[in-house]
Amino acid sequence: MPATAPPGVGHLRGEEPFPVAARRALADSQLRRNVGHATTTIRAKSGAVIGELPDWEHLRAAGSAIKADVLARLPELLEQLEAKVTQAGGVVHWAADANEANRIVTDLVSATGSDRVIKVKSMATQEIGLNEALADAGIEPVETDLAELIVQLGDDRPSHILVPAIHRNRAEIREIFLRAMPGVDPALTDEPAALAAVARRYLRQTFLSTKVAVSGANFAVAETGTLAVVESEGNGRMCLTLPETLITVMGIEKVVPTWRDLEVFLQLLPRASTGERMNPYTSMWTGVTPGDGPQAFHLVLLDNGRSAVLADEVGRQALHCIRCSACLNVCPVYERTGGHAYGSVYPGPIGAVLSPQLTGVADNASLPYASSLCGACYDACPVKINIPELLVHLRDQVPHPRGESVAMAAAAYTMDRPRLYEAAQRAARLSRLAGRRGRGLPPPLNGWTASRDLPDPPAQTFRDWWAER
């Protein structure tokens, strides 16, 4: 049977349940202001550019259909991708889990003799804890995406798929740069242009002096063996062209069949994620080109629980995700708690359905409940992932307390017997003793009514009304 992601490595499991972490996040007013401001801004930009397209819903349907097709014939497409990458001078490695992927990348970097790598922003490498594995092997990883660099220098964790440092404001970023970035002028202001200029100077020399780069991939085209990375700052372009060796770690679900399919996602992704009509930098490469760019290319195809997700006929639609973060930007829960409360590199609604499946639901049992089931995420998703359906599906798989199981069994027994059910309806009138809206219930029953109203029983049941007539 397909294996889930191994425990103790990577960033898919939190140290505490979501309700505990969320309660602490809710008490952080600065965090709530930072996240609320950022998500509101992104939401407005995204809505404006999506509104320009008369065929947006057709694009969504096309993206969803392409992803469903990919998952239906994933082995075939991955083998085609491997053949094309190999034909173009690249080397393909298959990694069953995070441990194997970390070992492959660490060995490849060590073989070059380099003790430092530059990195393009990558959710997959965050997922497997590659930075920690490289550091343990004496190799320094340097994040080149500005937000990822802020997180790295602040000894922090990403809290958003698109904007990892969304929980930080510019005053906090200034303090991080002053404390952790060498050679920074103490007179540095918190103006965005000044902060960006400092980061640019810090990274420029790193780009020019580092021989190995590690990237993720937004998409891989099976028919040609082409990899694609989309980004906004140009750091990705530098990492993908300047080093001598390029290592790409890609989740196996990122493959698309053809260039025509890629066209659909290059319209969906920027509008849903950054609120742009197209990404400022879309970098593509196919294997090795003599005299141009990296002269050694390695592609690491990562499973790490994805086969287990694929095995679930309902849950597999979580693998449609193109990491746009649209669901995070509309989620009322994420907006108030931020991303750290989810305990996974994949926060928000998509993290609440993807992380439990990658790790096994028991290891992330609280995440399927990190939602109000309002459905805003489903409406926003550019590939139409029915996240509310997945949340309910996973809640059914979560290990339930014995008391709850007993209560549900008793309810099922009662509803299957008309006379007993009729008696229960009459007894329900006693709920008036619990006070208005159930506020008078004693512990532990008051845990349910703390965030819900207990419906008032009707003065007359339907059975009584029917009997009178």
Automatic annotation (TrEMBL):
Residues 318-385 form the 4Fe-4S ferredoxin-type domain. InterPro entries: 4Fe4S_Fe-S-bd (IPR017896), 4Fe4S_Fe_S_CS (IPR017900), FTHF_cligase-like_sf (IPR024185), Helical_ferredxn (IPR009051), LUD_dom (IPR003741), LutB/LldF (IPR004452), LutB_C (IPR024569), NagB/RpiA_transferase-like (IPR037171). It holds the Pfam family LutB_C. PROSITE patterns: 4FE4S_FER_1. Keywords: 4Fe-4S, Electron transport, Iron, Iron-sulfur, Metal-binding, Repeat, Transport. One of its GO terms (biological process) is lactate metabolic process. GO terms for molecular function: 4 iron, 4 sulfur cluster binding; metal ion binding. This is Iron-sulfur cluster-binding protein. Residues 398-469 form the Lactate utilization protein B C-terminal domain. It comes from Micromonospora craterilacus. Residues 78-288 form the LUD domain. Residues 435-460 are annotated as: Disordered.
